[in-house]
Design brief:
128 residues, mainly beta, seven-stranded mixed beta sheet
Amino acid sequence: QAQLVESGGGLVQAGGSLRLACAASERTFNNYPMGWFRQAPGKDREFVGGISWSGSRTYFVDSVKGRFTISRDNAKNMVYLQMNSLKPEDTAIYYCAAARSIVGSAYVPAFSQEYDTWGQGTQVTVSS
């Protein structure tokens, strides 16, 4: 069964950085756009950012623009979320996801319904 596994979460002070990684179990994930979502306690899951299958296009929610970047290494079946200038409001469980219904397009989906494969999540806590 195709899987995604996140890693790299932890506790960091405000202003610090973390790099999350998402490992895909199959090379087929290289063909799909990938997204990062987060869910804070008591809140709905929200889109953070995404990257097209080739890495040529990325898209971010306004609250993280200029602070977060996404990259992928298709040779290693990996997707990364680099988070800089972290704020306490970035505290959440972070999930990576794949949109396997989108192939051969630079489109980066921003809605959770467009993603069909999810990792288990990794906790990010930013202290003030």
